[in-house]
Amino acid sequence: MSIDIFPAISQNSDTSETSEVTYKDIKWNFETDKPVFKNGEPVYVSGNEALKTWIWNALKTERKMWEIWTWNYGNDIFSLIGKPFSADVKNTEVARMTEECLLVNPYIISVDNIDVNFSDDNLTISLSITTIYGKIEMEV
């Protein structure tokens, strides 16, 4: 018997003709950085829309910081804060850490065209992701 520790937001997975499980996640409002709810219930999306939620949150989560996540989830970019590296080294490291962070997801095939931009105290990462569902262009 399995116990669901989040019964209020449990989800059923659809299986396609190829027996692959369709990835589902809660829809995310990227402008407010919050999940989307309708009538008090979370709104679910699947495929690339669901992967956008996963990517957004993985790139904003420090790896090994929160006990709720496995040590494979999140990124190590926060470890660069306060380090006296040159801008080129920081950009290269952020790109490498971004790719490492995202490729743990079995639905993500490749991470390409990573553009890193430091402006004041903000880091923006623009990237292209190839998933089993197609291409995604994102800015986080």
Task: Please tell me about this protein's structure.
This protein is an alpha+beta fold. The protein contains two helices and nine strands; from the N terminus they run ββββββααβββ. The protein has helices at 48-59, 87-102; strands spanning 24-26, 28-29, 34-35, 37-38, 41-42, 44-46, 108-119, 122-131, 134-139. A hairpin with a 2-residue loop joins β7 (108-119) and β8.
Strand order of the largest sheet: 7-8-9
Multimerization state? single chain
Uncertain runs: 3-11, 13-19
SSE succession: EEEEEEHHEEE
Termini, distance in Å? 39 Å
Overall shape: it is: globular
Describe the protein's topology.
Layout: E1 24-26, E2 28-29, E3 34-35, E4 37-38, E5 41-42, E6 44-46, H1 48-59, H2 87-102, E7 108-119, E8 122-131, E9 134-139
Key traits:
2 helices; two-stranded antiparallel ribbon; 140 residues; alpha+beta; globular; 3-stranded antiparallel beta sheet; 30% strand; 9 strands
Explain briefly what this protein structure is.
The protein has helices spanning 48-59, 87-102, and strands spanning 24-26, 28-29, 34-35, 37-38, 41-42, 44-46, 108-119, 122-131, 134-139. The chain has 140 residues and is of the alpha+beta class. The termini are far apart.
